[in-house]
Amino acid sequence: MSVELHDLAARLRAATAGHPTPRTTYAHVLPPLAPLLVSTRTDGQHLHLAASTGDQHAQGADRDALSALATLGAGTGAGPDQHPRTLVVATREDLRALLALADTHARTGALAPVGATLDWWGQRAEHPTSRATLVLTDALRGRYAAAHSPDLDGDLDAWARAFHLPDTAPGTRARLAVLDALARLATTGIPLPGLDEAAQADTRSWDWRTEQTAAGRPWHLPDDRRAAALGLATRSHAREHHDALRRADPRVAAREALTGTVVAATITDLDAATMTVRAHQPLSRLRTGHDVTGWLGLPEDVATDAAAANRIASATITATTIDPSGDLHITLSSPRLRQEDNALRVGASITLAPSPPDPRAQANARTNMRTRYTRTDNWLATGARPTARRRDVPLDVVVAAAE
């Protein structure tokens, strides 16, 4: 089966059931903290906004829309532990509209704290492990398969119809009730293990933003080279971490086996130093030299506990071959299960997946990057044009570069 047929089958199942069906075993988005629900609409000239915290409501247009957000606590630590509330919006278009509004009306003056918080929400929306910003269409398409066309996964009205919720107009209080209902559906269930710990980065990010504001740095200034590089690194690391967490979801692991990211196989040879497996299909994204983890059984048998007895602690792929019959064989070095009574044996089913990133190693990499950007001899940090240096290069290196 291809991943396209797998996704089609999920939509057909939803059509048969009469409602969206889960794509995942766990909830991949954490419930919002003291949510601030915001719905926007535009008439071509003005942006109209309706917002609610559940017990308070506010509306406005353009600059007054930002004032409405301010009355609901945007721009202050109105959420738990003096941190911002979770911003809940329908689509990324709504988020972009709010950011554009802040850039126009909230660079300075009384609304500057609102603009700074909106900017922070926009940045955290680019980190998939964050709970600071909840974009409903993104969360719903990741959590459920609906009977409608994939093109409608980015349409909030399509999701409302799929869950049999009333039709509402954007920018109205009735729309906010629909946002609240869909937010509960998107986050219902047991949270994906490890997601809560990853979301603690929101606290560090907000504290850093608070320090910058206290130091007098306007929120709308563009990042310098160091901040831009670190921002790109944190986004990349958050994505890598989130992808690894997702592979611990049985339904996600089963789907990823169809893309080759996860490989289901059978052990064909085993000795004290190496193990060879035959993949159930020749599609694999795993390459020689990759560090992998895995577990005994099929992809859907994954255990969320990394220390589970059936989990492989670590292994490295030393060779991959395709035999004349088209079967993919993968050789690994020194695989070991996380238990004393090793159950690895020839003929056993096993699933391989990329090794998850180490959060501490990621943090160290960002620290090293921050240090490098403070060195005066780093031309990327200083912006100075590097001095051209010429030297003899072996011919084979020149040929390799040309190829």
Question: What does it look like?
Answer:
With 403 residues, the chain is α+β, with helices and mostly antiparallel strands. It folds into two domains: 3-221, no CATH class; 250-354, Elongation Factor Tu (Ef-tu), domain 3. It has 14 helices and 13 strands. It has helices spanning 3-17, 63-71, 92-105, 112-124, 136-143, 156-162, 173-187, 195-198, 201-214, 225-246, 250-256, 359-372, 379-382, 395-402, and strands at residues 21-22, 36-42, 47-52, 57-61, 87-89, 133-135, 144-145, 263-270, 274-279, 291-296, 311-322, 328-333, 349-354. Strands 8-9-12-11-10-13 form a six-stranded antiparallel β-barrel. Strand 11 (311-322) and strand 12 form a beta hairpin. Helix 3 runs antiparallel to helix 4 (112-124), helix 5 runs parallel beside helix 7 and helix 10 runs antiparallel to helix 12. It starts with a helix and ends with a helix.
Index terms:
Elongation Factor Tu (Ef-tu), domain 3, alpha+beta, five-stranded mixed sheet, 403 residues, 2 domains
How do the strands and helices of this protein lay out in sequence?
Elements: H1 3-17, E1 21-22, E2 36-42, E3 47-52, E4 57-61, H2 63-71, E5 87-89, H3 92-105, H4 112-124, E6 133-135, H5 136-143, E7 144-145, H6 156-162, H7 173-187, H8 195-198, H9 201-214, H10 225-246, H11 250-256, E8 263-270, E9 274-279, E10 291-296, E11 311-322, E12 328-333, E13 349-354, H12 359-372, H13 379-382, H14 395-402
Parallel strand pairs: 2-5, 5-6
Antiparallel strand pairs: 1-7, 2-3, 3-4, 8-9, 8-13, 9-12, 10-11, 10-13, 11-12
Helix pairs in contact: 3-4, 5-7, 10-12
